[in-house]
Design brief:
Blueprint: H1 3-6, E1 27-29, H2 31-34, E2 46-48, E3 53-56, E4 69-72, E5 78-79, E6 92-95, E7 102-103, E8 109-112, E9 115-118, E10 122-126, H3 132-139, E11 150-153
Parallel strand pairs: 1-3, 2-4, 3-5, 4-6, 5-7, 6-10, 10-11
Antiparallel strand pairs: 8-9
């Protein structure tokens, strides 16, 4: 059992956090907010950001090593510096906006050998018949740093 380590009873194989306290209206998710439940994010496996979130602040999820999958809703229009930095077990990012959100620096990177390197997570974006959406992501500022990891989300 992991109860002693994390100080709450949880089966990490079947754990999804229901985050209360995020307003229903346009909202910026910040590090101050995630700090309230940061200890959960060391064991959580999948995380879906609520639709009311319109932007993700700097370093909001930095170092949340338990997250392997994150879904970013189409309500999000900006993701600030280092929002997912040091999330070293992040494998899949489902980015639902059809227009690439403004992306800061080091968002999907970690510090290795005195330099920032890509975590290597796959970034899934909406499919379109003419490939316009994936092309926009692959050529947008900072998103282009991850172009080899950007894929179309096949229904």
């Amino acid at each position: 059992s992991n109860e002693g380590i994390y100080d709450f009873p949880v089966d990490i194989n079947d754990f999804h956090v229901n985050i209360e306290g995020i307003p229903a209206s346009a909202y910026t998710l910040t590090k101050e907010f995630t700090n309230q439940w940061r200890h959960y994010l060391k064991v959580i496996l999948e995380f879906t950001i609520p639709d009311s979130v319109t932007s993700i602040g700097s370093f909001t999820f930095k170092g949340c090593v338990g997250i392997s999958s994150i879904t970013i809703p189409d309500s999000v229009h900006s993701i600030a510096d280092g929002a997912f930095a040091e999330c070293i077990n992040l494998e899949s990012v489902y980015c639902m906006p059809t227009t690439p959100p403004t992306l800061g620096n080091y968002v999907f990177q970690h510090w290795v050998n005195n330099d920032y390197q890509n975590i290597g997570c796959k970034i899934y974006v909406p499919a379109s018949d003419d490939d316009s959406i994936i092309s926009a992501y692959k050529t947008s500022t900072n998103w282009r740093n991850y172009k080899t990891d950007i894929r179309e989300l096949v229904p």
